[in-house]
Amino acid sequence: MDLELRQLRCLVAIVDEGTFTDAAIALGVSQAAVSRTLASLERALGVRLLRRTSREVTPTATGLRVVARARRVLAEADDLVRTATSGHTSLRVGYAWSALGRHTPAFQRRWATAHPATDLHLVRLNSPTAGLAEGACDLAVVRRDLDDRRFDSAVVGLERRMAAVSTDDALAAGGPVRLADLAERTLLIDRRTGTTTPELWPPDSRPATEDTHDVDDWLTVISTGRCVGMTAESTAHQYPRPGITYLPVLDAEPIVVRLAWWRDDPHPATQPAVELLTALYRTG
Fold first, then answer.
1. Going from the N-terminus, what domains does the chain have, and what CATH number goes with each?
2. I want to staple 95 with a disulfide (CB 3.0 to 4.6 A). Which of 27, 58, 141, 169 is the partner?
3. Cα separation values, 7 from 15, 21, 58, 69, 72, Å
């Protein structure tokens, strides 16, 4: 069974306009064409969608359900066309756990000033490519290597690693920590998108681990004191949380922040975004 958008548009037009004649005028076709198109839709679905009398046309019970779904399908189709033909009027930047930390507001403000014709949208999707592979964004902020030849990337900055502990933890009152201070704790990590792995510690002093897949769950568990975490500095800026204390980790390598995009189909705003973010990170 093949449905066509023109059939759905015809059905919706008949219901909205109230008569076949008015639907034909709205669609710019003949009344006979409207009748044929509706008939072909009812044959394809095997159900009656409209009741016709000498004075009015009303949907059947099934017709009401089909019309509601048809409106959504048509709206999505129109959105698809807008995305394909004028998608460069917007720029979607994806991220997994945290966007750009303390640089996020400045990035949004400066982008709006410098590129008013291209709307900036930040999209959070907890996937290894921060929504890039899923088509949810045009550029992605990533903090780990994307070992995928489909994508290209540029380094825009570095971020300190921060330990996240419960405010009731003894470490919370002691200031900066070292990796060894966390070695005897249980480390809560996101293996899919996170930046922390046990390999940051020497082989003979690696912490036990538990897994999570969501930043809110990560914060909730750490606040209980059962686990500790380690994350990028941007997380501390984006997710201040009662019950959580963030501490710099003095002897951990900084995290490299990259902006990634599809290698064979870069958004026209890719280079300006790279340049703006690089400048923001460079100025601290």
1. 5-86 (1.10.10.10), 87-158+256-282 (3.40.190.10), 161-253 (3.40.190.10)
2. 141
3. 13, 16, 17, 13, 14
